Amino acid sequence: MDTLGLDENNCPVVIEYKRNSNDNIINQGLFYVDWLKSHQKDFEWIILEKIDKETAKSIDWSQTRLICIATDFNRYDKFAIHQCKVNVELVTYSRFENQILFNFTNVSSTKKNEELTFNNTECIEKLNSNTLDTIPKAYNKFENANTIVKLIFKEFEDYIFSLSDNIQKNVLIHYIAYKNIKNVACVELFKNNLKLFLSINPEQQYMKKNLKMRDVTSIGHRGTGNLEITINSLEDLESIKDLIKISVQKN
């Protein structure tokens, strides 16, 4: 495989490059992804050696990604990736003198507007597919959340998706991530509230009175984002919508 690594959510990523349009790039990439999933321990050992033990232990296999880069893709390629269970992203490139322009042909094969209705049927399907270790704990967290938290979450999603057509949603092991090119927000659900992490500098002007907010730049936490906000009510969410918008615009 051409490139193998981790993204900002600690999910494995396979990247395949072709100088020209090539019908085999997606199939070749899917072969490598399948190989990677059957050699998880080998990959974790590489991460242990190259990065550190903590990163190796926190690899999230639930959203393994394949990025294919070529000059062009045909309509059959674009249709085929939506039939894949793997997250496949197609990127085309063009040369302009000494510069290269990259274009994200598809946002992702993961539907951004897929509702977070973590039901038992989907959990059973995952169990039957022998992926017990990769079942997102967000399933239980969403089901155990009270009605207010579920309403807050629904309002948050409606708002963030209204800000950009390019927002993607990824349900990971411990949290839900929303991204443009990179994460703009991460949400962790609890019974009585939710924690929102925004990818903006926690500057003083962003701090809101009567809200629990803190700078987590140097504090270990799940998800990405330097500003942590605990949201207990729809009023809390309404008061920080401007910060969500800033994070989307900056990322």
Q: Helical element count?
A: 9
| Overall pLDDT score | 82
Structural class: alpha+beta
Query: Total strand count, please?
Result: 11
Biggest sheet overview: 6 strands, antiparallel
Order of helices and strands: EEHHHEHEEHHHEEEEEEHH
Q: What's the structural blueprint in terms of helices and strands?
A:
Layout: E1 3-6, E2 12-17, H1 25-37, H2 40-50, H3 53-57, E3 65-70, H4 75-80, E4 87-96, E5 99-104, H5 120-128, H6 138-144, H7 147-163, E6 168-171, E7 176-179, E8 183-189, E9 194-198, E10 212-215, E11 227-231, H8 234-239, H9 241-250
Parallel strand pairs: 2-3, 3-4
Antiparallel strand pairs: 1-2, 4-5, 6-7, 7-8, 8-9, 9-11, 10-11
Characteristic terms for this protein:
251 residues; alpha+beta; six-stranded antiparallel sheet; five-stranded mixed sheet; 33% helix; 24% strand
Describe the protein:
By secondary structure, the chain is α+β, with helices and mostly antiparallel strands. It has 9 helices and 11 strands. The chain has helices at residues 25-37, 40-50, 53-57, 75-80, 120-128, 138-144, 147-163, 234-239, 241-250, and strands spanning 3-6, 12-17, 65-70, 87-96, 99-104, 168-171, 176-179, 183-189, 194-198, 212-215, 227-231. The strands form 2 sheets. A 6-stranded antiparallel β-sheet has the order 6-7-8-9-11-10. It has a 5-stranded mixed β-sheet with strand order 1-2-3-4-5. A hairpin with a 3-residue loop joins β7 (176-179) and β8. The longest helix has 17 residues, at 147-163. The radius of gyration is 19 Å and the shape is globular. Residues 108-135 have low confidence and may be disordered.
